[in-house]
């Protein structure tokens, strides 16, 4: 399958997906990276791995719809079959999401449906959680709300702060995202009637 990754920043999850896809047995090829930020650090990383990048900045468009239409054009030009949101920090328009329904997945740094939105690690600490983690889910118009494909849990340790906890979760993210992408590419996880359908999982 041809994968395009969308980012806004650091790109460590993007890097984990690229690394996984370097394995010839992995059922996905990363064919491009799209960023809404010209200074996203992940862009250089992608370039250094030989992956073509495109910047589609919100400021260059009059509306959110026009912005997403321009992104969609880039996805089409790349021949994208599946889109991975890897730290893409902007809510996508319903029309765009509808078009990619079942073919666009996102990673979120919390065990959904808890802690949607930003600042998840501090909020998990503030709530006194003893377990935290990350989720990969199909993207629906509501933020961090689509059907769950896979999750990974990590302990919250005594003395953790935002930095130590986020580092532990990030490590789990880098394992989880390739695993979830593989499930989607192989048709083992698909979106049906608003839910994730699993098939052929040992
Ligand atoms: C990750 O924690 C991801 O779950 C969240 O944004 C962060 C992106 O980090 N959506 P990176 O750009 O992949 O390093």
From TrEMBL:
Keyword annotations from UniProtKB, A to Z: Purine biosynthesis, Transferase
Span of the signal peptide: none
Formyl transferase N-terminal domain: residues covered: 1-181
Residues annotated as binding N(1)-(5-phospho-beta-D-ribosyl)glycinamide: 11-13
The keyword Transferase is annotated on this UniProt entry: yes
Catalytic activity: N(1)-(5-phospho-beta-D-ribosyl)glycinamide + (6R)-10-formyltetrahydrofolate = N(2)-formyl-N(1)-(5-phospho-beta-D-ribosyl)glycinamide + (6S)-5,6,7,8-tetrahydrofolate + H(+)
Binding site for (6R)-10-formyltetrahydrofolate: 64, 89-92, 106
GO molecular function list: phosphoribosylglycinamide formyltransferase activity
Active site (UniProt): 108 (proton donor)
Family membership noted in the UniProt record: Belongs to the GART family.
Protein name in UniProt: Phosphoribosylglycinamide formyltransferase
Species assigned in the record: Mesorhizobium zhangyense
